[in-house]
Design goal:
8 helices, about 190 residues, single chain, two-stranded antiparallel sheet, mainly alpha
């Protein structure tokens, strides 16, 4: 028994209703993503369409959670920064100001941007959200790319739309290639 037959036998021992759930969970793992999960499913003997759909669903669900959390965190930071800035603004009351009563903290200067973030922002500026989303999986997991887009202030709906297209496209491509290779080898 070779490695692939052993793996297919292992997958066959899992109930058929659970197999797509395992593929979906694999799709949620960075660096495995939808592409790797679909390949795992096809090699494991799951029908390619079911493997691809489960992998896409798992990958997209993870990306959606990260985008929503990242956008929420960004909004919380911005709101807090605005509240602190408003609290530092001196308020004049009857010829004096509260600023005279208590010294203000020094205004924080902008922190330097890391080299990776600068590189990402250049790519975002050059290729836009569609380019970064569609080409991003060549360099980084979609989870990282989507989170960085959310942290940059890109609208959640726009990120999710382009990430969905990228996940569907790359996963379908990998599924077709692996299915074709298996058909040719068999």
């Amino acid at each position: 028994m070779n490695l692939i037959d052993g793996f297919q036998d292992l997958v066959a021992r899992v109930p058929e209703l659970v197999q797509p759930l395992i593929i979906a969970l694999a799709g949620a793992i960075p660096f495995v993503e939808g592409e790797g999960a679909a390949v795992i499913g096809v090699i494991g003997g799951i029908h390619p369409v079911i493997a691809a759909i489960a992998a896409i669903a798992g990958n997209f669900a993870c990306v959606a959670v990260l985008v929503l959390a990242g956008a929420g965190a960004r909004q919380a930071v911005i709101t807090r920064h605005r509240q602190r800035s408003a609290a530092r603004t001196p308020v004049t009351v009857g010829g004096g100001s509260y600023a005279d009563a208590a010294p203000l903290e020094p205004v924080a200067t902008a922190e330097p941007v890391s080299a990776r973030r600068e590189k990402f922002l250049r790519a975002l500026d050059r290729y836009g959200v569609p380019g970064v989303s569609l080409l991003g999986p060549l360099l980084l997991p979609t989870q990282f790319t989507a989170t960085m887009l959310a942290a940059s202030g890109v609208a959640r709906a726009r990120i999710l739309f382009w990430q969905a297209l990228a996940i569907i496209g790359w996963t379908t491509l990998f599924t077709l290639v692996v299915t074709g290779v298996f058909s040719a080898v068999s």
